[in-house]
Structures are given as C-alpha cells and as structure tokens.
Amino acid sequence: MRPRQEFFRRHTEAGLTEIEWVAADPLLKAAGRVGAAVIVAAGPWLVSVVALALISVTMTPVLGYAAVEDLRLTVVYAFCIAPLAAGPVGAIAARQISAQIEMGETGPVAELFLSAALLSGMTAQVLALVVSLTLGIGPASILVGFVSLTVAAALLWTCFSVLAAMNSYTFLIAAFTGGMILSVACMTVVDIPTTEVLIWSFSAGISLCVALSMRHIQRRFACDYQTIVPTFRELLALLRRHAVLCAGVLFAICGIWVDKWVFWFSPSAARSTAGFLHSSGYDSVMFLAHLSAIPTYAGLLLFHRSDLVAAIEGFRKSLEDRATYGLLRRRIDQLERVSWSGIVTIACVQAGVTIGFVMMSPVIVDKFDFNFDQLLILRVGLIAVFFHSILFLFCTLLLVANRIRHFALVQGGFLVSNLLLSVILQSTIGMSAYAMLASAILSAVICFRFAFMSIRAYDYQVFVTENEALYVPRYYVVAWLLMRWNVIKRSSLQT
Hints:
By secondary structure, this protein is mainly alpha-helical. 85% of the residues lie in helices and 1% in strands. It has helices at residues 2-23, 26-63, 65-103, 109-135, 140-165, 169-189, 195-220, 228-241, 243-264, 280-291, 294-320, 325-367, 372-400, 404-428, 434-456, 458-463, 475-494; strands at 270-271, 277-278. Helix 3 (65-103) runs parallel beside helix 5 (140-165) and helix 9 (243-264) runs parallel beside helix 14. The termini are far apart.
C-alpha cells in the first residue's frame, strides 16, 4: 500500500502546485479580486435576484403564480429585514475586528464575530416575527420558513462583513458558490415542490455558507467560549459608543427601501395569499434598476483596498515619524488627489453603465413583459440609482475623514426626503420613481460639500476631532495648534 500512497501523494502535491501556479496568473488574480468585490458588495442581493428569476421561470408552470409569488415575497421580505438587523451590528464588529487584526490583537476576534452573529440573528428573528404578526402572515409553515430564512440572511450579512474585514476573499467566493450550488440542487431534486419546501431549500444554501464561514473564522482564530458573555457585553458597549454610526448605517439601509414601503402600504398595494404586501409594478422595476449600481460598490471596495489605503498609510507613516507640518500637508494633498481621482473614475464607469442600461431599457422591458409606465419608471429609476451611487461615494469620503455625524445627517436627510416625496407623489400622480431621484440629487449635492471640506481639512479631523482610526495621542492636538500658529505668525511677519 505504501507505493500507492506515495504515488497519490506525489500527484496530489503536483496538482496543487499546478493549481497555485495557474491561480498566480495576474489576469486570474485580478478577476478574483473583482469577483470577490462583487460578492462582498452585493452578494446577498445577487442571491435574491438570481433565485427569484430562477424560481419564476422554472416553478411557475408547476406551482402556479400564487405559490411562486409567496415564495418570491418571502425572499424579498427576508432580504429586506436582514440588513436592518445585521447592517449596524456587522459594521461595528467588522470595524473592531479590522482594528484588532491590524494591531496584532487577534485573541477576541472569533468571540466578537460569534457575538455579532448572535445579536444580528436574534434581532432579525424579532423583526421577522413583528412583521409576521403585523401583516398576519400564514400558514404556520410559511411563517416558520420566513423567520428562518430571515435569520439565515442576517447571519450571512454578518459573515460577509467580518470576512471582508479579514481579507478572506478567496474563501468567501468558495463558500458563497458552494451554498448557491446546494440551494439549486435542493430545488431541483424535490419530487413534489411546494412553497415551504422551496423556502427551506433556499435557506439550506445560505445556512451552508454561514456554517462554512463560521468554521473558517474559528479555525483561523482560536475561540475561547468562556469569554463569549463578556465579549457580547463589550459588543453592546461598542454599539452604544458608536450609536451615531449605527444610526447612519440604519438610515442608509432604510433610505433604499422606504420608497418601496410606501407603495406596499398604499391603497393600490396588493396582498399575496400568505399575507405579504407588495407592489409588483414598482418593485420589480426598481430591483432591476438597483442592480446597475453593483459596479460602484465593487469598484469602491477595490479602490479602498488599494490606492486609498496606501494614501492613508502614507499619512500615518509620516505622522508616526513626527514629520513637519509641511510634509503632512503634502501627504494630505496626495490623499485628496487619490481620493477624488478614484471617486471620479468610479463615477465615470457607473455613468457608462447607467447610460447603457437606459439605452437598453426598451429591450429589458420587452424581455420582462413590462408595460409603458414601467418603462418610464425604469429609466427614471436607473438615473436615480446613479445619483444614489454618487451619494454613496461621497459618504465613503466622510467615513474616511471620520465625519460620522455628517454621514448620519446626510443619510437621515435622504431617508426623510425619500419618504416624504414618495408619500406626496404616490398620493398625487401614483406610481413614480421621481421621489428617489430628487432625494438622491439633493443629498448628493449636500454630501459633496461635506466630503470636499472634510478631505481638504483632514489634518484638522485627525488632530482636533481625534480620528479613532489612527489612534492619535492627545498631545498631537497641541502640536497641530502650535504649527498653525507658527505658520500664521510667519505669514504676518512676511506681510
């Protein structure tokens, strides 16, 4: 047996070496980074859209329109509630984990992740139950499947945030692909498909991705289960300490959904047999429009992980070396050039994608059998999503400069304006996407002013407002004030 084992060992090692050699190709590495960025930025969103399209095409002739509609709305509601629960928790946990990994303190990483997963899962379960009781969703089998799918989606969202903070992109792609293959396999092997069975089949794939992610994090970072309770309390304290950031993230998520909610609760809304409120004429069109923003999310993630981080690290290195104020200002000027060049590049790419989708809108409408009113909504929605992606880019610069309150203010303003305009336009002219368009343009203009001033005054944000991302000591505030005073004094003497 030994010669045979040695034979298989050698060929296995040779195969792994060949795979690693092929994976090291620059084109494949670039494609892998782009794929990981797309999955991290819009993975759960893509899952829901692809699954809904697949289910609608294959299962409508078998189950009928009403059953497929219940399944579609179950997925939509689950992926609507999940980010509300997991978004703020995942953002804070990922931020803390990234800081701990950067400082080399990897001890509580696994415990913090499990605490975030537990909190987001419980919150998602409560929200799903509240929505179910409010709308009267039933029967019980669909109710249980809906709650379970919502919890799984919230855990998936948390896993994506933490894996992105750990830079585990390769594993993320593998786990995501494996989970989706399992979902499709479960849907295809069912002899007698029902709405409940398909919901659980979809949940199985998401649960597999979550289980693989949890196992990967625990294998990379040792977990001390005895410290779970103190870590959970520490996470709650972090959420209270960063309440403004949590509010900003929550406002950003609600702002995207609030116009749909207005139509769901409008007099013209429809109710499925399971009790889900919906407005299919508006929802389907706007979901397609939101897909056009994926290049912005993926491009921003790639830009943040490369040029933007390098510019920030250059400023940090000069700060640690106790450089002169003139050198620090040159580093800030470089950061400003890198930031705006990257933002403009991503915006130009997104503009090209939006123009392409607008020109292709008649073909899209014909393929999906939309009416003329939906064609107008699609075109306006594509333009609205473009300006919302620009708002998203500007908000990223606010977060880079640690202007958390400005970020929350802008996102709150977008939420309120989108809500009010949606109510007004829905009650006057009916179905329209102009509310989101006007809100996105107004919020983007306001946010541009905040972002421009914040990046230009990055030294002020660091020294005076004590940017936590750089862990700047307090005595740098005095140093910055002395430097500024010397510059002003020298200028006055020269005058």
